[in-house]
Amino acid sequence: MYYISCRVRICYRSYERSFRARLAILPVQSWLAINIRATPHISPSTPLENTAMEAIITLQRFYIFCALAALYVFIGRFIQYWRLRQFKGPPTSGWSWWWHSRAVLSRALYWHYSNATDRYGPIARVAPNLLVTSDGDLWARLNATRTAYYRGEWWYHCARIEAGKDNVFTECDNEKHDQRRKKLAFGYSGKDNFALESSIDVHIKELVHLISSKYVTSSSGNEVTKPMDLAAKMQYFTLDVISHIGLGTPFGHLKTDQDVNGYLKSMEEGLWIATTIFGLGMNWLRNSPLGPSEKDQAGFGKMMAEARKIVEDRKAYNCWSIENYHVIHHEPSAGLHEAAGAEIDGAVKAGITAKNSEDIISEFEARRLPYLSAVIREGMRIHPPVVCLFPRVAPPSGDVVQVSGKEYFIPGGTMIGYASWAMHRTNKSVYGEDAETFRPERWLLDQEVPEEKQRLSQMTKINDMIFGHGRWNCLGKSIALLELHKTIFELFKHFDFALANPHQSLKAIDSMGLWEIKDMNVIVTERQ
Question: Mind telling me which residue stretches traverse the membrane in this protein (predicted)?
Answer without folding.
Answer: 62-79
